[in-house]
Specification:
Blueprint: H1 2-6, H2 21-39, H3 46-70, H4 77-107, H5 112-141
Helix pairs in contact: 2-3, 2-5, 3-4, 4-5
């Protein structure tokens, strides 16, 4: 399904299957967050309850911003700026997720392996999103 949609943001003469690693990784992060929530769900702790909501919302917003940015076809500088805005939001949300997870990492030492894996994935996501954003800079340079 996503491969068909991915062609929407690529001109017909340049279409080819390309790897949407930043999207796939964001989905993995969301799934991992849900797994962590399930593991620590047995606690009635107020902090856990609040953070379950925060993690779910951040992971949802991360996917949302990636999808919107990806589906903007860049033909003008305005399109570029809109896409870059959504990419920036995805990066910012990734940083927020990382900060929140590092905080919980300190509180719940029992889920250390899960948190460590998730932290690595989020750092990789930030790197991929920044690379994607930088690639768009080449497009905007053609407008000048």
């Amino acid at each position: 399904m996503l491969k068909e949609e991915s062609n929407m943001s690529v001109p017909v003469h340049r279409r080819k299957e390309h790897n949407l690693k930043y999207y796939s990784l964001a989905r993995e992060i969301r799934i991992d967050i849900l797994k962590i929530i399930k593991k620590i769900d047995k606690s009635d702790d107020f902090i856990v309850e609040k953070y379950k909501e925060v993690f779910f919302e951040y992971s949802r917003k991360l996917i949302y911003n990636i999808r919107i940015a990806h589906n903007i076809y860049v033909k003008t500088k305005t399109d570029y700026e809109m896409r870059r805005g959504f990419q920036n939001k995805a990066i910012a949300i990734s940083h927020l997720l990382l900060e929140e997870i590092e905080f919980l990492f300190e509180i719940f030492k029992k889920a250390i392996k899960l948190f460590e894996q998730l932290i690595k994935k989020i750092n990789e996501e930030i790197k991929l999103l920044k690379g994607w954003r930088t690639a768009n800079d080449k497009i905007v340079n053609n407008f000048n």
